[in-house]
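A reminder before we start the practical. When you read a complex entry, don't treat the lines as separate problems. The point of joint prediction is that each chain is placed relative to the others, so the output describes one connected object in space. Small molecules and nucleic acid strands, if listed, are placed in the same frame. In the example below there are two entries. Take a minute to note the order of the lines before looking further.
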Amino acid sequence: MAPRIGVVTFPGSLDDRDAARAVEVAGATAVPLWHKDRSLSGVDAVVLPGGFSYGDYLRCGAIAKFAPLMQPLVAAAHEGLPVLGICNGFQILCESGLLPGALTRNDSLHFVCRDQRLRIESTSTAWTSEFAEGAEIVVPLKNG
Amino acid sequence: MARVVVDVMLKPEILDPQGQAVQGALGRLGFVGVTSVRQGKQFVIHVDGPADAELASRAEEMAATLLANLVIEDFTVRVEA
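Here is the predicted structure of the whole assembly.
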């Protein structure tokens, strides 16, 4: 059976449909999750998509951290549930303490948008297991 | 009705590009002698009840929980009647 991957929609999420489509293209079943849900509906992994959750007010991701769904999500992540945060989803991961650190403005204050070459250093993660170690991939990078 | 004022600033060791941009603009406008600008946020919160120690402690909790990201920011809390 295809793995079921949850895609969370917060108020202001923009890329939830794109993330759900990517999940389907990758051969999994996308399960829409709503920020007010209190259960993860038994999904095998979760994607926090990009956008401007809660209007990016206060700090990007700072208010999304307290959405009802985040409580079971953070607990499940600590138990090993794979969670992928893209763009604003990554900011939510930092704000909720699932990733260390915090994001600030680019020191140039300019928006950066370019292709970024990345080298696969480890294939032992849920996200890189089908790559070859040492392979180089190109990922679009955009941040402000 | 009590008033709580929370000031949130980036920690001194965190780069503040917005403050630097403001400093540059002040220089271009002819304001000489500006040696540093740091940009922060101020929250003004009105709360039912007295401006007492309990409110101060709740305000600290609000700031630490939500208003500031303690990884990169410091805050100060003032409680006023």
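Discuss with your neighbour: The domain at 2-27+36-80 of chain B is CATH 3.30.1280.10 (Mth169; Chain: A ,). What might explain this?
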